Amino acid sequence: MRTMMAALFCTVTMAASAHAAIREEPVTYQDGRTTMKGFVVYDDAIAGKRPGIVMVPEWWGITGHIRSEAQKFAQQGYTAFVADMYGDARMADNPKDAGALATSVMKDPKVMEARFNAARTQLAGHASVDPDRIGAVGYCFGGAVVLNMARTGADLDAVAGFHASLGLNTPAPAPGTVKAKILVLNGADDPFVKREEYEALKKDLDAAKAEYKVIEYPGATHAFTNPEATALGQKFNLPLRYDAQVDREAKAEASKFFDANLKK
Fold first, then answer.
1. How many domains does the chain have?
2. Residue 20 — pLDDT band, cuts 50, 70, 90?
3. For residue 91, is it within any domain?
4. How far is CA 12 from CA 9, 15, 16, 212, in A?
5. What is the per-residue pLDDT across 163-174, written as a single tens digit (0 to 9) for each?
6. Residue 77's domain spans which residues?
7. Residue 176 falls in which region: left (phi positive, over 0), alpha (psi -120 to 50) or beta
8. How far apart are CA 72 and CA 78, in angstroms?
9. How many CB atoms lie within 10 A of CB 85?
C-alpha cells in the first residue's frame, strides 16, 4: 500500500510540475495609436526555440476558451500568442456588441491585416520562438481573419480555422502567392457558412495553386470547440453547440497539420 501511495504521490507531483511549467504572460503592444493587450503562452520547461502560433479568438474577444486553447498549444511544444483584435482587450457579452466589434475589423482589410501583423511581430520576437516557423489558428471570426491573412500572402507556414467564418474581404490571391498550408475544420451543419462561400474559397485557392484541405464534420454546427457554446446558443437563440467528439477529432487533425508544417 505504501508503495502504491508513493507512486501515486510521485505521479501527481510530476503532473503538477508539468502544468506549472506553462506560463501565460500579458503583453501590451501597439497597432499605430491603438493599444493592444494580448497574451503569450509557452512551456518554460522546454529548452531552445520552438514554433509559434498566432491565435485569433471568436468574435467575443479574448475569453477563457481561447486562453485554454493557447495552453493546449503550449503543452504541445508551441509558443502561442493570443491576439487582441479590438484594442484594450475589449470583449462582448452579447451578439450585437460582438458583431459590431468584429465588423469594425473586417470592414477594412487594412485594419485586420495591421492588427494581425502587430500580434505576429510580438510572437516572432519572443525569446522562445523560432521566427522562421510561424503559423496561425483562428476560431469563428478568427478563422476568417487567419484565412484572409493566408490569402494576402502573409509570412505564415500553416493556417488553420476552426468553425471558421468564410467572409473573404481580401482580393483573390495570384498564383504562387499563398505561402501557408491551409486547413479548414468546419461543421457540416453550420448555418453561418454558406455553400457558395466554400465554393468561392476553393475556387480562389485552386487558382492560386495553394495547398489546402477542407473538412466538414457531419452533425456539427457553429462553435463546436467551445464548451460554453451550447449555453450561449440557448441564451441568445443562436445555432451554437459544443460537440466533444468533433472537438477531439478536429483538434487531432490540427495537431497533425501543425506538427507536419511547423516542426520540421
1. 1
2. low
3. yes
4. 5, 5, 6, 41
5. 999 988 999 999
6. 30-262
7. left
8. 9
9. 29
Confirm whether 105 is domain-assigned: yes
Q: Tell me which H or E stretch contains 43.
A: strand 34-43
Per-residue pLDDT, 14: 46
Residue 17 has pLDDT above 70, yes or no: no
81 within domain boundaries: yes
How many CA within 13 A on the CB side of residue 53? Answer: 34
The answer to whether residues 174 and 208 touch, using CB atoms and an 8 Å cutoff, is: yes
Predicted confidence at residue 4, as pLDDT, reads: 43
Residue 104 has pLDDT above 90, yes or no: yes
Does residue 6 register a pLDDT over 70?
no
Please give the model's pTM, rounded to 2 decimal places. Answer: 0.91
Cell, residue 232: 450561449
Q: What strand order describes the sheet that includes 50-56?
A: 22-31, 34-43, 79-82, 50-56, 129-139, 158-162, 181-187, 212-217
Question: How far is it, in rounded angstroms, from Cα 173 to Cα 185?
Answer: 21
* End-to-end C-alpha distance for the chain, whole angstroms: 46
pLDDT tens-digit profile of 41-81? 999 999 999 999 999 999 999 999 999 999 999 999 999 99
Task: Assess contact for 51 and 131: CB atoms under 8 A.
Answer: no
Is residue 17 in a domain?
no
Give me the residues paired with residue 22 across strands: 43
Cell of 60: 467575443
Distance CA 188, CA 151 (A): 23
CATH number at residue 84: 3.40.50.1820
